[in-house]
Amino acid sequence: QVQLVESGGGLVHTGGSLRLSCAASGFALNNYAIGWFRQAPGKEREAVSCISGTDGGTYYSYSAMGRFTISKDNAKNTVYLQMNSLRPEDTAVYYCATVPSTELCVVHAVHDPWGQGTQVTVSS
Length: 124
Fold this sequence. Notes:
Layout: E1 3-7, E2 10-13, E3 18-25, E4 33-39, E5 46-51, E6 58-60, E7 68-73, E8 78-83, E9 92-99, E10 118-123
Parallel strand pairs: 2-10
Antiparallel strand pairs: 1-3, 3-8, 4-5, 4-9, 5-6, 7-8, 9-10
């Protein structure tokens, strides 16, 4: 069964850090580009960052650039999102999903069902 499971969310204060994990089962991550997306209350889901399955290329949204780092461990079949200098506006449910490429790191490029996500809450 092909599945991606998000974890690592939590409650932190402004300026804090969290590392999210996206564990894959049923397929090898090194064959797929993976993206992190988020949806805040009352807002549309948006792309945060993506990483290539082949050459390690990455994409970051404007809000994530310089604060978040996406990485992957092929041996553990897991993609990570290290989030530093968190702000209250980063509060959202974070999801991971396969995307066609880092050039297509957008919500409408995700065709698989969304997982449960992991809640990130940043208090001011």
